[in-house]
Amino acid sequence: MWDNTAAAANDTITTAEPRAAGRVVLLDDDPAVLGALTRVLRRAGHDVIAVSDPYEAIARAKAGEVDVLVSDVSMPELDGIGVLHALREVSPDVPVILVSGAATMDTAVRALDERAFALLSKPCDLEQLRSNVSRALEEARARRARHAEEDERNRARFEELARRQREWTLFDAALEQVFMVYQPICKASTREVVGYEALVRSRHPEINNPGLLFDAARRLGREQDLGRRIRALAVEPFAGLPDETLLFLNILKEDLEDESFAGAGSPLMPHARRLILELSEQSRATREVSNRLAEFRAHGMRVAIDDLGAGYASLNSVAELEPEVIKLDMVLVRDVHRFPVRQRLVRALVSAAMELDVEVIAEGVETTDELDCLRALGCDLFQGYLLAKPAPSLAVPAMEVFR
After folding, report:
1. How wide is the angle at C-alpha 154 spanned by C-alphas 148 and 158, nearest 5°?
2. Is pLDDT above 60 for 135?
3. Helices vs strands, H then E, count in the chain
4. Of 341, 398, 325, which is closest to residue 367 (Cα–Cα)?
5. φ and ψ at 197, to 5 degrees?
6. Which is higher by pLDDT, 208 or 393?
7. Which residues on neighbouring strands pair with residue 97, listed in sequence order?
8. Are residues 221 and 121 in the same domain?
9. Angle at 393 between CA 389 and CA 398, to 5 degrees
10. Nearest partner of 57 among 33, 79, 35, 32, judged by Cα
């Protein structure tokens, strides 16, 4: 039996610091004990539900109405250990504080096995009870917070998986709708087309420009899939054309690492002698790049450095990779006739290229003023909208611009 005298004496105890309030269910078959404990815990700021039926306490916990359960051990219909066991099956994280007037070693072991938060002697010090309830509430909140964080991580993982799966599916669809366009490269002195640069496009409504396509490939780790598709399509219009008709093909670092690039069955191999491999910014000079390019050159392929003049990296690549072709960056080409500094830079680059026996292509030419100025500076190979826009077929450019 609960000692009501001790309860009454201790009922006046107050705590020195506020406790975190919570929903506490008190379970005892003695109405006097329920009343005393209810007053104590309500004064501590808790929302207290006093019940004498153990099955009602279990049902409330199952419904999520309980933060902490305080239960007597000795009850006639279902004892506190039985309540604790049943509670663990329906609400395993609710802290349970057991109170026993005659706790035995067996009771303590069973309480430990069922993960009781505390086993208090009856009658117990009410300050000790209040302290245990407050700590149990803190633990319950910490558990809920951990569960919430884990749920959030699981949700985020699921959403990332779903997003990635959707991106993967979209990328597959875009890959199927990839096609190539070709922009001619012309020689002014002979008014002839020397070759074409292959440029990738996609008809997919969501991934419908090269930037989106390459970004998606990079995020999904599918650069080689995209590279293989591009290579297979890029050479199709050149079947039957003489090797002198060059094909300029942009390549990435991942292309260089792909063993199928120049392997048996590669669509590039029948066209090796016409291929000019344009190195992108991501594929600048390293020992590995140099070694790989040496393998391709052994098959007759040649190398172009794109965007020369855009920075130190491209100039360093000329020294390291010794390309057969360099392409002047559009920053130099645009409005070159209006800027003397750009003209001096172009003249210097063209002069250096001639000494190195390297061909120079001015790309991005859009006006006759730019063309005329570049020709006066020594350029003879040109690419840009002034001659022809990229098209699905090997278009014949407007040679009349070379007046």
Report:
1. 145
2. yes
3. 14, 13
4. 398
5. -95, 130
6. 393
7. 70, 118
8. no
9. 45
10. 79
Quote the longest CA-to-CA distance of the chain.
Answer: 116
Structure tokens at 99: 């109170």
What total of structural domains would you count in the chain?
A: 2
Are 337 and 199 in the same domain? yes
* Res. 127: pLDDT tops 70: yes
Strands 302-308 and 68-72 come out as unpaired
The residue range of the domain holding 35 is 4-149
**In CATH, what number is assigned to the domain containing residue 258?**
3.20.20.450
Give residue for tokens 């052994």: 298
Task: Give yes or no for a contact between 54 and 110, defined as CB atoms under 8 angstroms apart.
Answer: no
38 three-state secondary structure: helix
Q: How far is 104 from 81, CA to CA, in rounded Å?
A: 12
Residue 101 lies in a domain: yes
Asked whether 6 and 123 are in contact (CB, 8 A), the reply is yes
CATH code at 24?
A: 3.40.50.2300
pTM for the full model? Answer: 0.66
Sorted by sequence, the CB contacts under 8 Å of residue 143 that are 6+ apart come out as 93
Q: Distance from CA of residue 15 to its chain's centroid?
A: 51
Percent of the chain exceeding pLDDT 70 equals 92
Residue 169 belongs to a domain? no
Per this entry, what is the length of the chain?
Answer: 403
- Tell whether 368 and 273 lie within a shared domain: yes
The answer to whether residues 30 and 108 belong to one domain is yes
Which 8-state DSSP code applies to residue 283?
G
Is there a domain that residue 170 lies in? no
